[in-house]
């Protein structure tokens, strides 16, 4: 029987990272996340990813998984949204991305 392996994401919110999204540090964080996710897919047979969809690391990881579906179409992303109003007070650009 096939065992489904899952990885869940949660992490710092943008204000806790200490740098903005359009910075070298954020780009490095996203590249590191991507390397880890690819490694989980290729070496650990992880096929299912779950994100809490909060701003910051949660949504960065979700975006990466969505982009990687082009190369690994069998992977799935589940959004574990804590409440219907999660994005209600966010900036419009963040709500659009959400």
What can you tell me about this protein's structure?
This protein starts with a strand and ends with a helix. β2 (46-51), α3 and β3 (76-79) form a beta-alpha-beta unit. It contains four helices and three strands; from the N terminus they run βααβαβα. It is globular. The chain has helices spanning 14-17, 24-44, 57-68, 92-97, and strands spanning 5-9, 46-51, 76-79. The mean pLDDT is 90. α2 (24-44) packs across α3. By secondary structure, the chain is of the alpha/beta class. A three-stranded parallel sheet has the order 1-2-3. The longest helix is centred in the middle third of the chain and has 21 residues, at 24-44.
């Amino acid at each position: 029987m096939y065992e489904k392996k899952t990885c869940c994401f949660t992490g710092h919110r943008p204000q806790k990272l200490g740098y903005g999204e359009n910075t070298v540090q954020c780009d490095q964080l996203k590249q590191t996340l991507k390397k880890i996710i690819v490694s989980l897919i290729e070496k650990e047979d992880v096929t299912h990813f779950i994100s809490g969809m909060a701003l910051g690391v949660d949504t960065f990881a979700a975006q990466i998984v969505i982009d990687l579906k082009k190369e690994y179409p069998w992977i799935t992303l589940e959004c574990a949204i804590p409440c219907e109003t999660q994005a209600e007070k966010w900036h419009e650009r963040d709500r659009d991305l959400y």
